[in-house]
């Protein structure tokens, strides 16, 4: 009887680099860093951006993690450094907000009423029926198309709409034209022809 060699386990545990070398921190250190950054963000964040504090903390946290990844031998970070990271995250967010010129476009009912002579009740009734039909059809569009078409109907050009929405010009143009085609189709089913 011959003895066979013992069976080897074919699964080999992957070798992991130490957590510090990868730029990540132990959970307790990470949690303390998050708390310190939250305090720093709370000190620099104006009340008008209070709803974005968590995002600012996350942005600051990512910056610190990137620093740890690039410089794994760096010692503990001072409170002044964390304050500076929080401040630069806030400044970048303020720049992004002003660049995006955020507007709430979800309110489809905010479309302006068409100008109608108040002395002609028939035209006024017809105009309000058309406006209501347009609103109903806009509500049925997919959100991206609805936003693009709403801006277009409010008089914004394709480049302006793209800038306001933060999209590429070509994507915005596509959404507008496809949205307008869907809007025309919906209006024709309601008995309104352009």
TrEMBL record:
Domain RNA polymerase sigma-70 region: 32-99
A molecular function GO annotation: DNA binding
Domain of life, per lineage: Bacteria
Keyword tags: DNA-binding, Sigma factor, Transcription, Transcription regulation
GO terms, biological process: DNA-templated transcription initiation
Pfam family, one: Sigma70_r2
Presence of the UniProt keyword tRNA-binding in the record: no
Region listing for Disordered, in residue ranges: 105-128
InterPro entries on file: RNA_pol_sigma-70-like, RNA_pol_sigma-70_dom, RNA_pol_sigma70_r2, RNA_pol_sigma70_r4_t2, RNA_pol_sigma_r2, RNA_pol_sigma_r3/r4-like, WH-like_DNA-bd_sf
Location of the RNA polymerase sigma factor 70 region 4 type domain: 132-183
Family as reported in the entry's similarity comment: Belongs to the sigma-70 factor family. ECF subfamily.
Database matches in PANTHER family: RNA POLYMERASE ECF-TYPE SIGMA FACTO, RNA POLYMERASE SIGMA FACTOR HI_1459-RELATED
Cross-referenced NCBIfam families: sigma70-ECF
Protein name, UniProt field: RNA polymerase sigma-70 factor
Species, as recorded: Corallococcus macrosporus DSM 14697
């Amino acid at each position: 009887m011959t003895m066979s060699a013992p069976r080897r386990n074919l699964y080999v545990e992957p070798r992991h680099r130490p957590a510090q070398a990868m730029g990540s921190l132990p959970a307790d250190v990470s949690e303390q860093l998050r708390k310190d950054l939250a305090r720093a963000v709370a000190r620099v964040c104006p009340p008008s951006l209070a709803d974005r504090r968590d995002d600012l903390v996350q942005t600051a946290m990512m910056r610190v993690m990137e620093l740890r990844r690039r410089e794994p031998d760096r010692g503990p970070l001072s409170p002044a450094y964390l304050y500076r990271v929080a401040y630069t995250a806030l400044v970048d967010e303020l720049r992004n907000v002003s660049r995006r010129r955020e507007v709430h476009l979800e309110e489809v009912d905010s479309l302006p009423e068409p100008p109608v002579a108040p002395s002609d009740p028939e035209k006024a009734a017809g105009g309000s029926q058309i406006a209501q039909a347009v609103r109903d059809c806009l509500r049925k569009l997919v959100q991206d198309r609805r936003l693009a078409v709403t801006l277009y109907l409010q008089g914004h050009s394709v480049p302006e709409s793209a800038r306001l929405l933060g999209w590429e010009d070509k994507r915005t143009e596509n959404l507008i034209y496809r949205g307008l085609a869907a809007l025309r189709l919906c209006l024709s089913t309601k008995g309104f022809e352009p």
